[in-house]
Amino acid sequence: MSHSVAGEPPSAGRRAAPLTTAVYSTAEWDLLTGLPGRVLVAAASPGPGRPPRGVAAGLAGLDAVAAGRVSDSDLVRAVVTAIYARHDGNSTGVERLTDVVDLLAACRTAVRVLERRADPADSAAYRQWVESVAARVCRAAGGGWSPADRRLLDRLGGALGLR
Length: 163
Prior knowledge:
By secondary structure, this protein is mostly helical. 61% of the residues lie in helices and 0% in strands.
């Protein structure tokens, strides 16, 4: 349950931001909430040695994002809630940032943010969840992971501090 700064429940009709999100700046929170979508788009996009992905791969990625709703991590649940709460029609930048080099740099930045601000268990859960989005997209493509898929997943795992 969220509390006001004074430690009292928020006023009726108004919900305070979850404590999990209060420690992040707007830019940091945008990075953390935008990263799963960027990973989904990058994993679903064709690249060298990676054929175009079908609708099933995109749906698998969306399902992987949604799976975060039942995570044990407060951070992962808060990120998923924020992703689904975006209904204002504003772009999150996912469409323009599918370059793998940019994505890996964003992952490294997210890791630094998490090291400074997140509980270690929440940090690990978030990083593993983000990696699982890419893994499920690649797996849904059928026929097993190509060498290019394995390279992408290895690079992503390295940038997320999982390898």
